[in-house]
Amino acid sequence: MTSALTEATHLDAPVIVTEIPGPRSAALHAERTRAITDGFGVALPVFIDHADGAVLVDVDGNRFIDLASGIAVTSVGAAHPRVAERVAAQAARFTHTCFMVTEYESFIRVAEWLNARVPGDWDKRTALFSTGAEAVENAVKIARKHTGRPRVLVLDEAYHGRSLLTMAMTAKEHPYRTGFGPFPEDVVVRATNGNRLRSGLDTDEALAEVERVITEHGPEMFAAMVVEPIQGEGGFNVPQPGFLAGLAELARRHGIVFVVDEIQAGLGRTGRMFASEHDGVAGDLTLTAKALGAGLPISAVTGRADIMNSVHVGGLGGTYAGNPIACEAALAVFEVLDDPATLANVARI
Ligand SMILES: *Cc1c(COP(=O)(O)O)cnc(C)c1O
Fold this sequence. Notes:
Blueprint (H helix, E strand, L loop, with lengths): L22 H13 L12 E5 L2 E4 L4 E3 L3 H4 L8 H13 L11 H13 L6 E6 L2 H16 L3 E5 L8 H6 L18 E4 L4 H4 L3 H15 L4 E6 L15 H11 L3 E5 L23 E4 L10 E6 H4 L15 H15 L1 H9 L1
Parallel strand pairs: 5-6, 5-7, 7-8, 8-9
Antiparallel strand pairs: 1-2, 2-3, 4-10, 9-10
Helix pairs in contact: 3-11, 4-11, 8-9
The chain binds pyridoxal-5'-phosphate (PLP).
The site of pyridoxal-5'-phosphate (PLP) has 14 residues, from helix 5.
């Protein structure tokens, strides 16, 4: 088998042949404003016709290098041939059954890959869902069920999603929270992320400050501590060395489930399979989404078997959770990630 990275030659970019946006994009954008809520913003108002690797081609024939990658989603490209093949083949076989109604094999294979690759040298189980926010919400549900405790500790500048609970867990006010309150402030407690520039704290001082917040509220109040190994929506904040490991130690000492949100930073984007590996850290629960499905909606909670299995039968699920087409996309992504050339290439970049 040829390398998944080198088997294709890609279109040159950037190639700009009209003003931006071009005439066809501008016309479509005018139609959009008549059909679609103003609540959706847009970073670059051009309409995409097709993609080739990391190159997007718009409806006017302009080619762009896709530095946004659908917000950290299209790590293997926006039209990887193996993703396209697997997705098309699965769509022709069946599109959906709901895994809670009747089963299919690809759901197991995705779970097995995650159980084997997610950090943590212990027996693991996985639950698949559809979106990142759903994975975060379910991690909180699982941690509550396991601990019998109500609250969740999050960090300054955190991003965990746009659903009601995850919006409360997200730090940035505008545009994510403005006018959408009140928030469950009794549930979500925030502590420093040890960002040296903004907090002025070194690793030990930052960890002491997090522990002060835990003891102020009472450790017995916290089901979970949810952290991103590299924050991506409050600036790109790489934690100080030892900070993540210190948080994991703090959480475990206080009986708090340590949840690592790898939804944005995980699955190869930092040159390691998981960003938490840079600090030698393993979450009790690890969350993936975004790059997992190469654009098909799929997310996962993977973690310690005893925690994952503390939920009663029927307590977890969702109509589209681990949809079979999205599972096939994930299996194609795993083929690319398992190619040794992939992470070497990311590390080189
Ligand atoms: C994008 C993101 C989420 C939410 O994922 P959605 O699929 O948009 O719901 C959660 N956590 C992090 C770190 C993210 O980057």
